[in-house]
Class I SAM-dependent methyltransferase (Mobilitalea sibirica), 261 residues
Amino acid sequence: MQPYTEFASVYDIFMDNVPYDSWADYVEYLLKKHKIDKGLVLDLGCGTGSMTRLMSDKGYDMIGIDNSQEMLSIARQISADREDGILYLCQDMREFELYGTVAAVISVCDSMNYILQEEELLKVFTLVNNYLDENGLFIFDLDTRYEYEEILGDHTIAENREEGSFIWENTYYEDEMMNEVNLTLFLPQDEDAGIYKKYEETHYRRAYDLEVIKALIEKAGMEWVAAYDTLTEKKPKPDSERVYIIAREKRQKDKLYLPRE
């Protein structure tokens, strides 16, 4: 089963511990620090749109891209009820297309870790650079090797709630710096009869050394700005579990799209 199909229906319930508010405040701070206080912003790997909506509430015009129809269906329904005008597009971030350029691209909740090959990540970075305004900003987070090796490792996480239950089995492959997650869901089908249906999904995420990310950023034509430990402006530590990367568009004559008038 493809990732984020059945899980989409309960994603926001089981992920209610994710600090989206803190992430949005931090990303807003970084954007404004670099003089981007308004304009069109693309959220890559937007999922059900939690971060997209928070950034919309902060005054940015938002576009959300994700390759899961199920996740986007939830995002669109919530935004329709809010009438927030967010545009959601079902696209693979390795091949995404926009009508023009944007002031910034953001990506949180380890979306970039789902790109498992360096050449594929380069495709994403090159497209980001292509669709950024002049001096536009790219801000994204990454789970670290420490997170996958020491925190998740080969551990199993399980949770039981009224809305359903899940078992999250982690396996770490050291040579590939890869985290494999086998997710088993038990979702109620007939609550009165106590009948549950079992669903299974497998997720793969890869950690990258910062030296590799910097080289790919620069190869894609962007300028490396900084790497920070989570929600700080401090350098990443050996035991950082998540890092934020900031890159900036550099003016290039061969870009396919020019900044909007």
